[in-house]
């Protein structure tokens, strides 16, 4: 694999290899401290980011590579002077061995990959996909269960614009016995193309309108925030589904709670102390997974 654009690029074998490397990095990071010494990686972010950008930048430096970065390229790069994305990519590839890119347009990373001579990693594209988020989501579930087969997961909230959900359901569709409960308000349902993707790969999708529709023994509650920045004012005026301690009491002891973050009010802070709430561990896993991904991409593309 040269570029990482969509979660659909990965196979079960890819994930097995990546997760084994992630666990090794997590438990023995000193072994990899200078493994990418002499490499330079660029982070090119056209949209705001905390976890994705900083976890990538930490991963780059922990592997011994050097970092060049622009945090808000939409406003502080030469794009404000009219420079095209293709020209920007052609310039940056002369400075770095890989480019980690977040963009407000869904297909920007794919377009960049068509012209780039170095690996392009999609760090979130509009309302489309966020493949490295799905890697860390799946790794966190895998750590807890030891397998991604026979998984039941409720994806909750903004399923229309939530790119993390889009990448996650595609990646989980690689595995046997998947059941996805989609909990959303009218207008924010998962699009038919993703539902078809799940079903064509042997999974089952169940549309829900309430948290009460989710079976109490579901394996994962994957909560998301409403992507108001991608909506009209009218669309953004919606009521969140809220997970609080009372809601969580109705689910099994093995049910874990994940969230790609940032959160607003959709998970009450009282849930943070519940051992099933793993969203902060999930975010930390992002650094380890991205270390493994960079290691594999830059070692394979030497």
Give the topology.
Layout: H1 12-27, E1 40-45, H2 51-62, E2 66-70, H3 73-76, H4 85-92, E3 98-103, H5 108-115, E4 120-125, H6 131-145, E5 152-156, H7 163-172, E6 179-183, H8 192-200, E7 204-208, E8 220-223, H9 233-236, H10 245-248, E9 256-258, H11 279-300
Parallel strand pairs: 1-2, 1-3, 3-4, 5-6, 5-8, 6-7, 8-9
* Terminal residue distance: 13 Å
Q: What is the CATH superfamily of the largest domain?
A: Aspartate/ornithine carbamoyltransferase
Give the low-pLDDT segments.
229-233
Q: What about the largest sheet? A: 5 strands, parallel
Spatial sequence of strands, sheet with the most strands: 7-6-5-8-9
Number of domains: 2
Helix content: 25-40%
Q: Average pLDDT, to the nearest integer?
A: 91
Q: What is the N-to-C succession of helices and strands?
A: HEHEHHEHEHEHEHEEHHEH
Q: Which CATH-level-2 architecture of the largest domain?
A: 3-Layer(aba) Sandwich
Q: What oligomeric state do these chains adopt?
A: single chain
Number of strands: 9
Q: Estimate what percentage of residues fall within beta strands.
A: 5-15%
From the alpha-carbon coordinates, what is the Rg to the nearest angstrom? 19 Å
Q: What is the CATH first-level class name of the largest domain?
A: Alpha Beta
* Overall form: globular
